[in-house]
Each structure stands twice: as structure tokens, then as C-alpha cells.
Design brief:
heterodimer, A: three-stranded antiparallel beta sheet, B: mainly beta, seven-stranded mixed beta sheet, about 55% strand
């Protein structure tokens, strides 16, 4: 099982707002390590969506936003579009696992 | 713009060693702010971090794979490599090489991925 916990699936209608949660513990997110988010379209490599908890790389639409509090983080998508249908992963660093990078189990987002 | 490309056999027999190489272009593997990583994804499953290497040769490995794993770097060729020994069908996955940016350890560049199947 993954160190970071995400809901396996979510769905929303076009135009709606959805939030994907990512829960860790005191060795990773709760220890103050940054959370990053990735989008993976079918058959493709993941791409960076949010870095450093709240920052968007250039080219990522403003509909995507990130936040972090305590041992959890969230990815919000507003104005949902059909092209947002993908798998989403959170990622952080874990000091208790020999300096490992850790990922969430992924959330499959379906646009209805 | 950094680009990464995996190369290696797509089929490995059980009990043998899985070997992949990642060629980095558009930037130096000796960059002091970069860590070079391997990440895999079993079919239909989540991403799994395998390990990373710094250009100096310092490594960090996933505790679950550490006993079978070696990651090495060749700065003269701007390449780094993965060797996973004693593979089983459970090691069948898409293997990605990637760059982790030092500090926040964000994975900001990914290779396209290489499917490796373990089968006799």
C-alpha cells in the first residue's frame, strides 16, 4: 500500500469543482516536506501539475491549485473540463524511509 | 529543457537481472541541484519510487528493493543506470527515469517510460 493516501476515484460534471486529498503522517507531509502533484493521461508519463504545495509550473492552467495543512494536502480543480480526465498523484519526501520519495496511490478522475 | 530517454531490454527472464540506462540531454548530469531517479509503475497501479543517485555516486534506495538494487552514474556519457537482480513477474512494470530537483525533491522531468516484462 502507498505511504500517502488518496481516494481511489472521484467524478464531477463539466464546470464543477473537485478536490483530491492526500494524507500522510509526521514523517512526510507533517514533517514539513513539500507536496507535489502530477497528472497522468492514459498511456503517457506523468507530468508535473503543482510543486512546492501551491506553485503551478508555466503552462498549467490556473484552474488547478494546491494547498497543504498539517499532515494533509489537497489538489483542487475548478471549472472541470473533459480533458482533465486522468490519474492524479501526490508526492512527498519521507525521512523515516531512508530518504525515500513517496507517492500516493493515485486518484482516477472521471468527468461525467 | 532537460530530456531523459530510457533504453534496455523489454523482456527479462525470471531470476535474471533487469538493466536499464537513462540518457540525459539538454543538461548536465553533474548539475549540483539534480538527483537522478528511477520510478516504476506496475500495470494499472500507482507510481513506485525505486531510488536516486547524485552525480557524485551517492545513492538512496527504496527499502523494499534495496537488497536487489544498484543504481550507478556515468558522468562522461551523461547517463545513469538501474540494475535489479533476481527479478520475478512482480517486477513487470513501466520503468521511468526522472530528475528530482534538489531541495523539494520535485520530479520535474520524466522519461517516456520503458515497459519491462519478466517472463520465461
Amino acid at each position: 500500500h502507498s505511504v500517502l493516501t488518496q481516494p481511489p476515484s472521484l467524478s464531477g460534471a463539466p464546470g464543477q469543482r473537485v478536490t483530491i486529498s492526500c494524507t500522510g503522517n509526521s514523517s512526510n507531509i507533517g514533517a514539513g516536506y513539500d507536496v507535489h502533484w502530477y497528472q497522468q493521461l492514459p498511456g503517457a508519463a506523468p507530468t508535473l501539475l503543482i510543486y512546492g504545495n501551491v506553485n503551478r509550473p508555466s503552462g498549467v492552467p490556473g484552474r488547478f491549485s494546491g494547498s497543504k495543512s498539517g499532515t494533509s494536502a489537497s489538489l483542487a480543480i475548478t471549472g472541470l473540463q473533459a480533458e482533465d480526465e486522468a490519474d492524479y498523484y501526490c508526492q512527498s519526501y519521507d525521512s523515516s524511509l531512508s530518504g525515500s520519495t513517496v507517492f500516493g496511490g493515485g486518484t482516477k478522475l472521471t468527468v461525467l | 529543457q532537460v530530456q531523459l530517454q530510457e533504453s534496455g531490454p523489454g523482456l527479462v527472464k525470471p531470476s535474471q537481472t533487469l538493466s536499464l540506462t537513462c540518457t540525459v540531454s539538454g543538461g548536465s548530469i553533474s548539475s549540483g541541484s539534480s538527483y537522478w531517479s528511477w520510478i516504476r509503475q506496475h500495470p494499472g497501479k500507482a507510481l513506485e519510487w525505486i531510488g536516486r543517485i547524485f552525480y557524485s555516486g551517492n545513492t538512496n534506495y527504496s527499502p523494499s528493493l534495496k537488497s536487489r538494487l544498484t543504481i550507478s552514474v556515468d558522468t562522461s556519457r551523461n547517463q545513469f543506470s538501474l540494475k535489479l537482480r533476481s527479478v520475478t513477474a512482480a517486477d513487470t512494470a513501466v520503468y521511468y527515469c526522472a530528475r528530482e530537483r534538489g531541495g523539494s525533491m520535485v520530479v520535474d522531468y520524466w522519461g517516456q517510460g520503458s515497459l519491462v516484462t519478466v517472463s520465461s
